[in-house]
Amino acid sequence: MNAPEKVRQYDRDAHVVGNIVHLEHFNVVVDDQRLATLFYVTGIGGTRDPYLFTGLENMWVNFGRTQCHLPSRGSKPEVVRGTIGFVVPSLDDLVKRFEHAGREMKRVAPELPNRFSFRRQEDFVEATCPWGNRVRCHAPSPEFGNTELGIVYVDFDVPQGTADGIARFYREVMKAPAKAQSARAAVDIGRNQHLYFTETSRPLPEYDAHHIQVYIADFGSPYHWLKERNLITMETDADEWRFQWIVDPRDGRKLFQIEHEVRSMRHRLFNRPLVNRNHGITNMTYASGFDAFRGTY
């Protein structure tokens, strides 16, 4: 008689996605689309969306399933209080693009203030956009699942003593897997994205209205919790609302200000297909049939 087959044991909790299913975009105001194009499109390797906001009032730049929204409203440029994490197919190619983009910035706008810089590290490239936004670009790796192009995290600088409360907020209010360790809160989003909140002793600049956008599955429960505490800042439409303050659910203490544009999975833009070009193709290297990015995101 054969011995009974051993039953496999699985950690089912390890595959819980949580309520926040996708971090789609961050939004910062810029005052010159030429420099924005050179940094986000020519440099990092995004694709300006060919269908929406094709004029001069805004530009949406596609990175896989994610975007940068860069409105040009004539107001003061906005700067994320933290670092935006990207995955790009090749760090070596990225460095070459940044070198070219930097030369072009000096050529087309030598009179404008420009904080652009970049630095190659062993396994990532750090860069600063012309207005001071910090990005960190990684090569594809198991840490980011099968993503080869996209925004994979935002790491916010937050005041000391706030990480535990921030993790509680996302766990208890937004219903997302979140934990705090070593003065840093980590929030899981979907399969391979994260929000981080890293404590710092440095003074933070005043909040300037930049925002992030997320899709959530349970659209009602977080809304009602925030509404009861007068924390909803915008009732956009049936499938979108916004809030700005992350608060500690234990005592209501305000911890960090960052606007969340929150959309339901019934929103008209959810899972909209985004056009992504193969930024390795130029007029000199063109090969028929390879115009589109064919990696995973």
Description:
By secondary structure, the protein is of the alpha+beta class. It has a domain at 18-206: 2,3-Dihydroxybiphenyl 1,2-Dioxygenase, domain 1 (Roll), CATH 3.10.180. It contains four helices and 16 strands. The strands form two sheets. Strands 2-3-4-1-13-16-15-14 form an eight-stranded mixed β-sheet. An eight-stranded mixed β-sheet has the order 6-7-8-5-9-12-11-10, covered by helices on one side. Strand 7 (124-128) and strand 8 (134-138) form a beta hairpin. The model has no long low-confidence stretch (mean pLDDT 95).
Which CATH top level class of the domain at 18-206 fits? Alpha Beta
Order of helices and strands: EHEEEEHEEEEHEEEEHEEE
CATH superfamily of the domain at 18-206: 2,3-Dihydroxybiphenyl 1,2-Dioxygenase, domain 1
Strand order of the largest sheet: 2-3-4-1-13-16-15-14
Query: What would you report as the Rg, rounded to the nearest angstrom?
Result: 20 Å
Report how far apart the termini are: 49 Å
Supply the number of helical segments.
Answer: 4
What is the number of strand segments? 16
**Rough outline:** globular
Mean of residue pLDDT values: 95
Notable characteristics:
globular, eight-stranded mixed sheet, 297 residues, alpha+beta, 2,3-Dihydroxybiphenyl 1,2-Dioxygenase, domain 1, 4 helices
Write a compact overview of the structure shown.
It contains four helices and 16 strands.
How are the SSEs ordered, and which strands pair?
Blueprint: E1 20-27, H1 33-43, E2 47-48, E3 60-63, E4 66-69, E5 82-87, H2 91-108, E6 117-120, E7 124-128, E8 134-138, E9 150-159, H3 163-173, E10 178-180, E11 184-189, E12 193-200, E13 211-216, H4 221-228, E14 232-237, E15 240-247, E16 254-264
Parallel strand pairs: 1-4, 5-8, 9-12, 13-16
Antiparallel strand pairs: 1-13, 2-3, 3-4, 5-9, 6-7, 7-8, 10-11, 11-12, 14-15, 15-16
Helix pairs in contact: 1-2
